Amino acid sequence: MERSRVVQLVPVAILIAVGAGYLWEIASLTGVPIARDVQMFFVPQKRLLWEALQAREIPLWTPFIGTGAPFLANIQSGFFYPPHWLYAVLPFYVAFDLLIVFHVVLGGLFAFALCRRLGRGLAGSYVGAATWMLGGYFASLLNLLNALQAGAWAPGVAWAALGTMQSVATSVDTSKVGGLGSPRGSIAVLAGVVACAALAGEPQSVLLAMVCAAITVVTWSIREHPSRGTLLRSMGAYGVAALVVLGLVMAQVLPTLEFLSDSGRGSGLSLERAAAFDIKPVRLLYMFVPTDFRDPEYEFGLRSIIGSGDPWLFSIYLGALFPLLAALALRSDRKREARVWLAAAALAILVGLGDSTPVFPWLFEHVPGLSAFRFPEKYFMIAAFAAMLIAAFGAEEATSARRHRGDRWWALAYVAVPLAVLGFINLRYDAVRDWALAFGNTRMAEDYAYAFGLWSQNLAKLAGFAALAVGLVWIYRKGRIQRHWFAILLGALVSGDLAIAGRHLNPVVDVEFYET
């Protein structure tokens, strides 16, 4: 029993170590992110919050925006967000860096807990958590701190919502008080998690997290077939939790709503403004080929080989192993859930394409409240959430060593396709250059050879990881390595691939840069 408990903590410890190592400059307090909104918005804003908390004052107003503006009423200020109270007791840059690492690791731990609650083993849960914590979507949020904070709680919202239904389903006496595992305890946990997510500073991410939680609960209910009484009591529990959340967040929400009524969003945005920063169809390639092209003349940001301008999400990379894991998930005992999540991801991507398809304009016209939100790329959060669970299902199936018809052909195609594309672009250099420049920018035209080299390098990485994954599965099925070693190597492949792809998306500078 004791050994089993220790073993279950090993993936948790590895997740924490990987998250801290992935952000080692920030975790060691020697560097501070600088890309985009961090430099221009979040560092000055959090500095003002730090000064107020250090002085034990409530920061109602900021003199540094225009001729002055409400501060506390701006939900991004995060005065009521509990983790931000760390600013009251630590030096500014220490608290700033520790909060970034905390939220990255928190997202991974919540993802791991959710996968475990869905019945996945240690290996599948770790792969799912790494896919979320290190995946392109979450890695892109390091320069959008409010979205990072809210995104960290997203798997926790689904974990707590599912836990509430499970506690209701297994409880004999719904009035039982003792323990967090009781219905009342699970309601308290759910209310606390949702309240923290709501106060984190990105309302749209919280709404998307609730959509993901709803899909999670519904798919679990379809599989487990809870009784009608359980469903009704669960709906009541969710209603109670919602009332508690409203009570907890009203100190922030009421000033924000008043502030919103005086802002440009009070009467809704135009379709053109709301659809800004959508996913261009050509960028869907980046779900499987990592984006790590950095313009040497653009020190604090990123340029892509395909597509002009800066995306809202620097990366939408799901991982080189994701096609393999998705194929395995569709053949696993959770294949129905995997199909649901693939459909949800596809719909989210269609919405994320903005005005490139009729989907987003139609929703913008017919869904009340949608006109208050910008940037369709944000809807990719649902696709990233789906990828997390699909990866967990697929990894669990991989460790089962079951064989399926067509496995060899699928494995061959999985490795051959990136190799074929790599060969094609090198043989048809001029044609590919002309195609890419049609979507590119001036910098691409000036130094295409550099961008082309990185594109080839990324395709080679993709083919290499695909070959390693297929080879690892083949060796395991041949009985050459034990299951626990296979699980460790599979987790290392997933973590390494995603960490390499996202490592340089968000540059950091020495603390002295900001202090100067």
Can you offer a commentary on this structure?
This protein has one domain (2-515). The chain is 65% helix and 2% strand. It is built from 21 helices and four strands. The chain has helices at residues 2-22, 24-27, 37-54, 92-117, 122-134, 136-139, 145-170, 183-199, 203-224, 228-261, 271-274, 322-329, 335-352, 359-366, 380-400, 407-427, 429-439, 442-446, 448-477, 483-502, 511-515; strands spanning 31-33, 61-62, 69-70, 508-510. The strands form two sheets. Strands 1-4 form a two-stranded antiparallel sheet. A two-stranded antiparallel ribbon has the order 2-3.
List key phrases describing it.
two-stranded antiparallel sheet; two-stranded antiparallel ribbon; single chain; 516 residues; 4 strands; mainly alpha
Which SSEs are present, and which pair or pack?
Blueprint: H1 2-22, H2 24-27, E1 31-33, H3 37-54, E2 61-62, E3 69-70, H4 92-117, H5 122-134, H6 136-139, H7 145-170, H8 183-199, H9 203-224, H10 228-261, H11 271-274, H12 322-329, H13 335-352, H14 359-366, H15 380-400, H16 407-427, H17 429-439, H18 442-446, H19 448-477, H20 483-502, E4 508-510, H21 511-515
Antiparallel strand pairs: 1-4, 2-3
Helix pairs in contact: 1-4, 1-5, 4-5, 4-7, 5-15, 5-20, 7-8, 7-9, 7-10, 8-10, 9-15, 12-15, 13-15, 16-19, 19-20
Helix coverage percent: 55-70%
Give the total of beta strands: 4
**Side-by-side strand order of the widest sheet:** 1-4
Outline type: globular
Unreliably modeled segments: 172-178
Q: Please indicate the percent range of residues in DSSP E strands (runs of 2 or more).
A: under 5%
Sheet bearing the most strands, described? 2 strands, antiparallel
The run of helices and strands is HHEHEEHHHHHHHHHHHHHHHHHEH
The total of helices stands at 21
Average of the residue pLDDT scores: 87
